[in-house]
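Q: I'm building a small set of examples for a reading group on sequence design. Run inverse folding on the following structure and report the sequence directly after it, with nothing in between.
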């Protein structure tokens, strides 16, 4: 991997793309520390030092690289765009027009991307309003006596909402710039930057506690183990052979080639973990606004909102497995794949084209999704259980999912760099 980066920097075109990508990532990190107008930055720092992070907003804070707790310009991070993308993708099942746009090719994809941008801005307005309301009520930093928003006039609050929404729009533009002119998927790299930026501080806080050295070594070993598991599974795939029959078009003979359909063990990626984490945060959100002395509020806070509670862990696993099957069923359509194969004269050896091919693909997908769902649940639970056993605060939010995202994005980026290197330095048989 390091050799690929060295060779990439020796290639002028790739060097420009890599430097452009790195510069955008630096701009993104700088914006994560620029305070929003109307926020008292010294009071925010005092509250951060005096209180622990609120687990209620942990998912948004994870994808903002810690910018949320600083109430910075990029406080919302990439989360509104991720939510909008998932919603638009799910709406393909509900709204036939969206499915038609998806099948139209590049023009339809561009239209869906435009809808995603509009929805991102709408969600950014909603989320910024919610975060500012929580910050004003003092629930963002529970127990902090300092006022993080000294001037709570409607003009100041409106400027804060506009600033955070504009920050989300700027992040979306930066991600698209990386995709067009840099290396890798821009949005994924910005998520990678946000999560990776929180790792050093989290590991340092573990090392600085009681029995810090031994806990640091154990946590580091667990992280390396999880990274190895993620790399092994993410690179694994089931290859279904496909044979294309020969056909005459005019005087030319086409087809007769052999290929395969690569089916990954984990086709859903990290989406089931994000869905499960988001749903489990809803009861805690409702309990935050309820009467804290009520029995149901205390039960929810103790058994559902608390990440170390057995019921929370059980619900976490069940939701991950459910969303793994659900999202795989949405993103992979066996009927569509079978129809495309039949249209171009392709067939699976031993399986008739058409409905038998679709049934066979459904059979393979349903069997291969089971180990993928178990793998996702293990990756999500291993770091959390380790933190509970070692009595360490979960300073790395949703530890397993963050490692899954970092390793997955890193692998995809290295593959793109390697493929571009092969295009520029391919020698073949003749030199």
């Amino acid at each position: 991997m390091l050799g690929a980066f060295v060779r990439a920097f020796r290639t002028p075109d790739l060097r420009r793309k890599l430097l452009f990508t790195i510069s955008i990532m630096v701009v993104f990190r700088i914006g994560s520390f620029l305070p929003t107008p109307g926020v008292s930055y010294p009071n925010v720092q005092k509250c951060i030092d005096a209180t622990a992070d609120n687990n209620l907003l942990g998912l948004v804070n994870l994808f903002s690289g810690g910018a949320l707790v600083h109430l910075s310009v990029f406080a919302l991070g990439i989360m509104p765009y991720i939510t909008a993308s998932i919603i638009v993708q799910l709406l393909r099942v509900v709204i036939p027009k969206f499915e038609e746009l998806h099948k139209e090719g590049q023009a339809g994809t561009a239209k869906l991307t435009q809808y995603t941008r509009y929805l991102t801005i709408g969600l950014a307005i909603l989320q910024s309003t919610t975060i500012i309301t929580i910050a004003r009520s003092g629930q963002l930093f529970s127990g902090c006596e300092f006022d993080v928003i000294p001037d709570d006039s409607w003009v100041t609050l409106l400027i804060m909402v506009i600033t955070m929404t504009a920050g989300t729009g700027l992040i979306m533009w930066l991600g698209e710039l990386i995709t067009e002119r840099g290396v890798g998927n821009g949005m994924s790299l910005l998520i990678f930057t946000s999560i990776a930026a929180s790792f050093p501080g989290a590991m340092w806080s573990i090392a600085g506690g009681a029995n810090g050295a031994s806990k640091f070594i154990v946590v580091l070993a667990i992280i390396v183990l999880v990274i190895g598991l993620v790399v092994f599974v993410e690179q694994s795939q089931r290859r279904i052979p496909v044979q294309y029959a020969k056909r005459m078009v005019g005087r030319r003979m086409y087809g007769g080639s052999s290929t395969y359909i690569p089916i990954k063990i984990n086709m859903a990626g990290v989406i089931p973990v994000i869905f499960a984490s988001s749903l489990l945060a809803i009861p805690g959100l409702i309990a935050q606004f309820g009467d804290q002395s009520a029995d149901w509020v205390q039960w929810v806070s103790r058994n559902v909102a608390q990440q170390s509670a057995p019921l929370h862990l059980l619900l976490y696993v069940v939701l991950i497995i459910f969303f793994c099957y659900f999202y795989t069923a949405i993103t992979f359509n066996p009927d569509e794949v079978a129809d495309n194969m039949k249209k171009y004269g392709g067939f699976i050896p031993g399986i008739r084209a058409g409905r038998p091919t679709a049934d066979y693909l459904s059979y393979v997908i349903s069997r291969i999704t089971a180990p993928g769902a178990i793998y996702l649940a293990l990756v999500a639970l291993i770091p959390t259980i380790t933190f509970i056993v070692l009595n360490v605060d979960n300073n790395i939010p949703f530890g397993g999912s963050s490692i899954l995202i970092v390793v997955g994005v890193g692998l995809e980026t290295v593959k793109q760099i390697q493929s571009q290197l092969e295009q520029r330095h391919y020698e073949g048989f003749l030199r």
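The first strand starts at residue 237 and ends at 244.
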